[in-house]
UniProtKB/TrEMBL annotation:
Protein name: Uncharacterized protein
Family annotation (Pfam families): Gpr1_Fun34_YaaH (PF01184)
Stretches of the chain forming a coiled coil according to its record: none
InterPro entries on file: Gpr1/Fun34/SatP-like (IPR000791), SatP (IPR047623)
Superkingdom of origin organism: Bacteria
Subcellular location field: Membrane
GO cellular component: membrane
NCBIfam families: AceTr_1
Length: 207
């Protein structure tokens, strides 16, 4: 029998960061308007949470994993699943899945989920120090967002924490839009048109 030659096909994948950041930028923009009182209700926030906050970030995360980017893949996928969970929670609270589920809602559970994501975000913030300053700034405000969401949902300093969450969310959106622009424009022009800042270096140079 002749040996069959197996050729490994290397599929190149473009950097999915712009797509993931765009999904984050859009969902936080729409959601922040509701928190700030500019808009009311959640009905038109939910589609953006599912399709931009969840699916766009999940797609970016999967492609980042294909590029062997553990940080990007973990971040985008984790926040994508976050928005799916939040959208589902809103749907339950609105009675979409029936009055039984709606009647059994305990918002404190959501508050503890926010604190769980705060722990995750702090870990990712430390990791973001080795990416660039735009992403690092984004993660710092994500941390503040989860602090505000967690405490306000548990009814602790509710007004102040809600305000913190609202303003953190709109700032996340603006930073993420800048990140989208930097990723796309810098790639297209093959040079740094929009600066993103160098990673934070700890300690002195290696001997």
């Amino acid at each position: 029998m002749s040996k069959q030659e197996v050729q490994s096909v290397v599929v190149k994948v473009a950097d999915p960061s712009a797509l993931g950041l765009f999904g984050l930028a859009m969902v936080t923009l729409v959601a922040s308007t509701q928190k700030l009182g500019v808009t009311t209700g959640l009905s038109y926030v939910i589609p953006w949470a599912i399709f931009l906050g969840a699916f766009a970030q999940l797609m970016a995360g999967v492609f980042d994993y294909k590029k062997e980017n553990l940080f990007g893949g973990t971040a985008f996928c984790a926040y994508g699943f976050f928005w799916l969970a939040v959208a589902s929670s809103w749907l339950i609270n609105l009675g979409v899945f029936g009055e039984t589920l709606k009647g059994a809602v305990d918002p404190h559970q959501l508050g503890f989920a926010f604190f769980g994501y705060l722990i995750f975000s702090v870990i990712m913030t430390i990791g973001a120090t080795q990416t660039n300053k735009v992403l690092l700034l984004d993660f710092i405000f994500i941390d503040l967002l989860f602090i505000g969401l967690g405490f306000s949902t548990l009814g602790i300093a509710e007004h102040g924490m809600h305000t913190l969450a609202a303003y953190s969310e709109i700032i996340i959106s603006l930073i993420s839009f800048y990140g989208v622009a930097a990723n796309v424009i810098n790639h297209q022009f093959k040079r740094q048109v929009l600066p993103v800042g160098k990673p934070v270096r700890f300690g002195g140079p290696k001997a």
